[in-house]
Amino acid sequence: LVRMRRKRCFAWMLSGLYYLKQNPKVWFKMLKEGLSTGFLQTDVHLNDPPELLYLILTTFISILTGKHPALKTNVRGNYRSSLIYLRKTLQEKNIECIVFDLDGTLTKLKIPWGEVKNKLISKKLIKPWNSIMVSLYKSKGKNIYYEINRIVKTYEEKSVEKIRSDHELSILLKELSKIVKYFAVVSKQEKQTLENILSKMGILDIFSVIIGRETEMLRLQQLKEVIKRLKISPEKTLMLGDTIVDISSAVKLNMIPVGITGNPYRFQQFVEYGIPCFKNVKEALKYIILQKRYCS
User: Fold this and answer.
1) Rounded distance, CA 232 to CA 95, Å?
2) For 38, left (φ over 0), alpha (ψ -120 to 50), or beta?
């Protein structure tokens, strides 16, 4: 959908027209991005009107006739199948642990990452083409890691001030704790920051293991650390996350992945990949509780 290019994005407005039939919100997100950055940052080539007209007409015809390759994916069928798979798994397996990503899953941290990156670039701590987390990962064990980490942590700690208690989430987790033995959090924030956030949300005491970036930075390694510490079976562990990295890491370890996202494009991705997904973590937890009650 969107390819990040420094502060600008490239929007595939023409190539993504099939979303008008599958998920209109996704295409309108592309349209909004294209209009905000200008047509030069899209696949709409105004310098060749005949070619543009031909592409639009042929794309619309293929969509209306159902012959567009992307429409061969049965989105609704995929979504139903993924939930059936999750329901069957929850009813048949004794789930030992639920692992959560933090930012974007349990809560949303209000961190101005663009501002953080600009500050790090101005201090010559990272290269403009590298992400903050990639820079931290590459520099781990070196002096520059601690300089980058200090600045990033300052912004992360400021975001903690905006966190509020979540009573409903607390009730859902406590309800689940009656049937699930362990809860864990994995995140790219440091453990102390994570504990402060979970404490303000009123759910810190629920978690048995909290893995921050000072222990491991890669999601796959963080999940391995959870398995090692709790001595749990991956096949009986749910992983709730908001990114493809969360999901792919869980799959590699034979965990049961569940996508959490309010982003229409990301939601579409999860569905197309056959991953059971929900718009927010509370919706997912309610579904899990319902299925576990059904089989008890």
Assistant:
1) 10
2) left
The residue type of 93 is K
Q: What is the DSSP string of 48-99?
A: -HHHHHHHHHHHHHHHHTT--GGGGS-HHHHHHHHHHHHHHHHHHS---EEE
Please give the model's pTM, rounded to 2 decimal places: 0.76
> At 20, is the pLDDT very low, low, confident or very high (cuts 50, 70, 90)?
low
Tokens 């973590």 sit at which residue? Answer: 281
Residues 239 and 223 sit within 8 Å (Cβ to Cβ):
yes
Query: pLDDT tens across 127-180, in order?
Result: 888 888 888 888 888 999 999 999 999 999 999 999 999 999 999 999 999 999
pLDDT at 57: 77
| Residue 251 confidence (pLDDT) | 95
**Residue 3 forms beta bridges with which residues?**
10
Question: What gap in Å lies between CA 272 and CA 177, rounded to an integer?
Answer: 31
Q: How many CB atoms lie within 10 A of CB 78?
A: 17
Q: Which residue has the tokens 């990156």?
A: 117
Give the pLDDT of residue 3: 40
Q: Give the Cα separation of 234 and 217 in Å (integer).
A: 20
Helix (H) or strand (E) holding 277: strand 277-278
What single letter denotes the amino acid at residue 151?
Answer: I
Structure-token pair, residue 21: 């039939």
* CB-based contact 270:277 (threshold 8 Å): yes
CB contact at 8 A, 167 and 202? yes
Q: Which amino acid, one-letter code, is at 63?
A: I
